[in-house]
What does this fold into?
Amino acid sequence: MADAPALELTDVTRRFGDRTVVDQLSFRVARGAVFGFLGPNGAGKTTTLRMILGLVAPTSGRLTVLGAADGRRVRDRIGFLPEERGLHPRMTPLQAAAFLGALKGVPARAARQKARSLLEGLGLGASLNTQIRRLSKGMAQQVALVCTLVHDPELLILDEPFSGLDPGHQQALEILIRERAAAGATVVFSTHVMSHAERLCDQVVLLAKGRKVFDGTVPQARSQAPGRLILEGDLTPEAISALPGVAEVAASDLPEGRRLEVWLAPGMEAHQTLSAAFRAGLPVRRFESREPGLHEAFLLLTGARAALPEVEGA
Amino acid sequence: MRRLFLILRREYLAYLLTPGFLLALVTFPLIFAASVFLPTLLSRQAPAPQLIVLDLTGIGPQGPGAYVAAQIREDRARNLPPGLAPVLVQTPASLSTAHTPDAAGRAVQAYYKAFGQDPPPPAVLVLAGSAQALDARLWTPRARLLDLSGQLEDSLTDWSRESRLRSLGLSSEAVRAVSGSGVSITAYSPASRTGKVTLTDRLPHLAALGVSYLLVTMILAGSGMILTSVVEERSSRVIEVLVTSAHPAELLLGKVLGILCLFFTGLGALAVAALLIAGQLPQGAVQESVRAVLNGGLLGWAAFFLAFGFLLYGSIFAGLAAFCETPREAQSLATPLSMLMLIPLLLVISGLQAPDSPILRAAALFPPFTPFLMLLRIADGAPAWELATGISLMALTTAGAIWVGVQAYRTGALTQGSANLWSILRRSLQRQG
It folds into this structure.
């Protein structure tokens, strides 16, 4: 069982009445991997996480969690951080961590020591005995995270862990996720923010309307999206469209000449198109190659490209 | 079991270390003491009612007016509470001219009009007619639920009896002897420890009433705590973390038992304080009663029924709360269930007169009412089969209530937005199927 994946879903479907929320979903997550679960709102991410945790039963299909058929059977080995951080507002961070750690089988004294060290590591040493309701939202989120980690789970499930965190806390969380993965834990997290997934994930699964639209590594995901070239000069869209590998061209006028945004066909490298332009003697004054990011892949694969505005630098 | 204990401890400590609990611990005995001593205090503090006796019978010194006045002076000499011992007031001139009850009535109304309302004018007892047909009217400035009528009626009945006995030829000494004679009954029962029935022997019946009141109080107060706790956990999504850490049954039972332990802590503290106070008192009825409670197994039965009753209703409340979005929603749902508890309470109050009535016996076997009523049946010597049947049915119903509560809690807790109880139960049954 040591080689068994941390998670394996096979044709998992969940319906609520007539509505299919998760449809024939299959994927595997290797032990020790950082796994990103991506998708727009309502894609079925939270429902899938709930099925993994054993809170909701699949309508059909099979799943195994740390080798068990049901997340509830291995609940002491899982750490779960819900999207809306669940903490008793009148408990202090130390009490909350000791209580939730003890529920997961950690002796109270050890849980308190561990919680103290984690909280101090996150800069919350001065608030150890302050009631959670008196902490800022960001601090409370940090406390919730500590409560998730206090029993050293083998499988960490984080539902939108970056939402509501300031950039400093986001960076601290990224470091923490890397540390946990380095220590051998499997980390599964859902997010809307592609940059986190891009930096952290060994594997990503993209969901749209309950169906899997992509399963692979970040570079593989990127390659699904077209690259872009920005060209400036006395150029015409017709001349650029005739170049090899060009899928789409959008032109805008500049005080001198034009600016053309060139979308390349999938798999096409920007330098091939650019070389062809020079070989054809086109008057290119300035060029800029933009590699496709996970964001573009996300928009393309989830069918949201037309609906969403372009994010500069994505 | 470990998780159940951890959740129980958290709930227990969450309330134990709050000012509210300590305040309740102090106020509960104060309220109890107030309920015992307040009526006496009010009656002692109230100004004594004033009374004018207007005797129009013409009988003279042997007449009813003089008799009533003498008894009132006697009562005041016995230092009775002011409310029970009116003060005689001299008859004003405006009233002494009346010779018939109707004329006296008119004069009293005019007198009241002239007197004003603050302080109120005295009551006026108008006596007319003869010894055989006495016409007695009591005029009072305000119509109240309780006035001097009862007391004056007793006094005039005594006068009437004595007057008739005298007319039959009895001497004044013989009349006084007849009036002073009386018979008191001493009750005996083989069920009594000493043979003679005393307050100590009647204590279990009173205890049954007390336990019923206590259970209703505990359920009403506890249900509020359970409802608020579950709704808070649901709205803050703490529940999602908890259900990934423990079984819903552990969460529900831990919550209900934690609050039950809190109540038992409070009751235990009050009982210890009461015992310490009783220990300081001289030997007497109080110490005898304490011994009867401690020796008779009454405490054990009381704790048993309090625990089962709270578990039964608490589980249902916790389950209901799991599909409520706000405390207000939960309270409105719990109100009809709380009203239901008034039925066994009324049955206990009525049942004190006839604890073996068929209706009470049947009601005591109805599981939701058993925790409230069975102690009264035990106090009245219920047969073993009745006790066993009642407890078995109650235990089965409590187990059922816990099951329903857990199903509702499990499904309701994880439902986002408002949920429907019937769909939750339907899904739960489907899952079991």
